[in-house]
Amino acid sequence: MSEPYDRGGMAESGRFGLPSARGTVGARVAERIASLTPEQRELTDRGAEIIKAGGLVAFPTETVYGLGANALDAEAVKKIYETKGRPSDNPLILHVSSIEMTEALVEINWRARFLMERFWPGPLSIVLPAKEIIPARTRGGLSTAAVRMPDTAAALALIEKSGLPVAAPSANISGRPSPTDAETVRQEIGRVIPLVIDGGDTRLGLESTVIDMTGDHPVLLRPGGLPKETVEEALNMEVLLPQDQKMIRRSPGTRYRHYAPAIPLKLSAPQETPADADNWAWLGTGNPAGSPCVKIIFRDDAEYAKELFRALRTLERSGARIIYAELPAEKGIGRALKDRLIRAAGE
Ligand code: TXA
Ligand code: MG
Q1: For the YrdC-like domain, which residue ranges apply (predicted)?
Q2: 24, 121 contact by CB (below 8 A)
């Protein structure tokens, strides 16, 4: 495909922060932070003090809740791995509140800058060459790092008030479904962390899209809240899927079993669900054949995505023996949804 952008123009819009159709990143961030409630203002003040002192804070993003620490403090980051039981070679995403903060962390190329200006704050994590300031522990020993600007007032205020990039994986025990509300975070890890900032239910319910921008072609390392097609339209360029083992190794997180509910999960079309078995649960947008003991039917894929992790936690406590979940089509948010379902099924 041809290159749609004039490099000079792009670099200029980055350097001088010329407004795009959505306004500048800085203006969008200021607008979010201005919408903080008085209660969140107080909680994010406290959270920023904890982050600066090397502690952990759980906070809402637009995707899932994150478990944050100062990304530049290897000891603080170690606590994240310990709390989650996360393998130490699975790198963390660094959450930022400005492009200037990002420039101190990674080498930004013009295409990556364009994506930041277009989609930040938002559910897009960009993998770029890391600068030395990022401890090896945060990067899982890699020479690259993932950066993302989350899109909630609380997350942006926490980062901005601490003045530090915040490393944050999803705030669940490693391998479990990601939390999409504060109560789930409290139940899962609340006993061992000093502060959970409550921002209600998350807007998207699935994690950010992770794209490797270190090479000549963007590579999709994890489908997520921002559809691949939307990025391709913006870049006027194909986003490649990881083809070979070398590329897959670049995304260590994809090696591990994830999102697993405590009871088995099977992927199925509605008409292929059991007609007479007992104690099975259904999850999908269509109506299943047979009679499940619990069924959760979503309006569309967006609602399926938003509610998936909560539904998995609900169903594992429902008395059902097995979950049948409908496999969505691989387009838009359906791609990320399908990815999470396949991993939850352990396939
Ligand atoms: O929406 C999200 O991204 C949430 C919220 C809290 O921001 N965070 C999240 O983090 O999902 P986590 O740690 O659960 O997933 C991070 C993913 C993993 O698959 C990891 O392997 C990948 O990003 N990743 C991080 N740094 C990377 C790097 N340098 N190269 C390749 N993949 C990287
Ligand atoms: Mg996770």
Answers
A1: 41-226
A2: no
Confidence of residue 23 (pLDDT cuts 50, 70, 90): confident
Any residues with Cβ below 6 Å from ligand 1, and which? 61, 63-64, 66, 90-93, 125, 127, 139, 142, 144-146, 148, 150, 168-170, 207-208, 210, 221-222, 250-254
Which 8-state DSSP code applies to residue 240? B
Question: Cα dihedral sign for 111, 117, 123, 127?
Answer: positive
DSSP, residue by residue, 110-166: HHHHHHHHHH-SSSEEEEEEBPTTS-TTTTTT-SEEEEE---SHHHHHHHHHHTS-E
Q: Which residue intervals of 151-255 are DSSP H helices?
A: 153-162, 182-189, 228-235, 245-249
H or E element: which one contains 252? none
The residue among 77, 335, 312 whose CA lies nearest residue 184 is 312
pTM: 0.92
Going by C-alpha positions, the residue among 29, 31, 79, 30 that lies closest to residue 53 is 79
Six-digit token pair at 246?
């070398």
Tell the residue nearest (CA) to atom 13 of ligand 1.
169
Residues 92-127: pLDDT tens digits? 999 999 999 999 999 999 999 999 999 999 999 999
- Report which DSSP code applies to 82: H
Q: Using CA atoms, how far apart are residues 324 and 204, in angstroms rounded to an integer?
A: 22
Residues annotated in a binding site for ATP: 63, 86, 90, 144, 170, 178, 222, 259
